[in-house]
Amino acid sequence: MAILTVATQAFEGQRPxxxxxxxxxxxxxxxxxxxxxxxxxxDVLPDAAGxxxxxxxxxRYHNRAAVGTILRMAAAKGYARVIVGCRGILSTPAAxxxxxxxxxxxxxxxxASHNPGGPDGDFGIKYNLGNGGPAPERITDAVYARSRDIxxxxxxxxxSPPVDQPGRFQLEQMTVEVxxxxxxxxxxxxxxxxxxxxxxxxxxxxxxxxxxxxxVGGPYARALxxxxxxxxxxxxxxxxxxxxxxxxxxxxxxxxxxxxxAHLFADDAPDMGAASDGDADRNMVxxxxxxxxxxDSLAVLAAHARLVPGYRQGLSGIARSMPTSGxxxxxxxxxxxxxxxxxxxxxxxxxxxxxxxxxxxxxxxYGTGSVHVREKDGLWAVLFWLNLVAASGKTVETLVRELxxxxxxxxxxxxxxxxxxxxxxxxxxxxxxxxxxxxxxxxRCGLAITLADxxxxxxxxxxxxxxxxxxxxxxxxGSRVVFRLSGTGTEGAxxxxxLERHEADPARHDVPVQQALAPLIALAEDLARIRHHTGxxxxxxxx
Length: 543
Ligand code: G1P
Ligand code: ZN
Known about the structure:
single chain, Alpha-D-Glucose-1,6-Bisphosphate, Chain A, domain 3, about 25% strand, 27 strands, binds 1-O-phosphono-alpha-D-glucopyranose, TATA-Binding Protein, seven-stranded antiparallel beta sheet, alpha/beta, binds zinc ion
């Protein structure tokens, strides 16, 4: 029944990346490592008296241990109440919804998202604000600064309460409320979507295959799709959250979800396929023998949003991350609403959503979301698609092809070069950055370059400036190549090369993507000398 003050020493490298602090589980298992980071956060946050904190994670290995430690530290910080998901589980969008629902002061989310889990896998932690969204840079920078000279942390000496069943417990002066992780989220979905129409769709024989990738999306998808919307049992596969995701890489893209792709391209394929990632904020959507690119998905949802009850009033605006294709911009133009271009990472959408400037947002990295929470939301996107299919009577493929016919196709691909020695990746970026000023007005590989810069963003709401957000090279016809280093990886560096070209001619919409982008792929190699710097002659993953 006492608050202990424990002496500690600072660890190197506790700098949050694109989405919180991510490291190998073995790094987090070092004595005091998690405690140091949590205390650094608590030291940056104001006094917690009377405040509520939300806590939960994607159920990966180390989740349970971390929940226990954080509860004991939250009691020491003086929170009045912590709301924690049963078994320590909360999907990232559900955590965001809970923060908003309970008007909590913030939340701690334990996840390394789409990174592999298990004792040799990754773990992560991030803090979300009272709006339900990821903390902005000014806070993550302050936490990092604090982590560099921290010398003590505070923790209750009481054991942390069990979190296996919903219930209420006392830990020091703090109440711990263990809640059903699905209920508040499910209620929100009921308010947004036409559940009757989706029910009727399933009743008519429409078949969906939802691959939860043995991750936290399973319980949510089962409860809503099979439980409430009448999809037949077995619609949700890999639906049990496992600590190591059953050895799968819970990143829904055509490489890691190849089993789902195979089902959707089989003779007896279902009408629609979908998958979500480790913490259920990402989504992949497929039609029968048809892969929907995430950038197109955002554009389709935007174009037809009025068919969905929660968006019947129309959209105030759309936001997309800079490397995401311009498909949404074209839809926004047609709708007469603004489209904002932000740096990569969901935290940049928060201000625009809070200010009511945008309703929908998305990233090329399989992230789509809206003003209903302040995170991207995998199951929400799938329900949105189901609602559109039900309300329009059109297939997934038809909805995308109509988008292309009306606006042209933004042919798009991302090439990832993984596990490059960091020094080499940095050298590549340094050289390319240095070459940028000389590029506009020149022709390389037969392509005329009109703009080359290091993307910087001024937040239109609070005026904050974020620099160094990706090197972009834009051609006279609007085609682009963008280069950036991942801020979520834990092994060496990952170079991401984003390629985009607009194809107006419907006769050319079925040219294979890599073929259609071949001149840009050659340009990327010419500009960045990827082979030379990385020693790799092809990308690890192309999405
Ligand atoms: C990646 C994606 C980015 C997304 C983030 C978190 O970050 O590219 O769009 O917001 O994961 O899911 P990166 O590794 O590129 O820094
Ligand atoms: Zn995720």
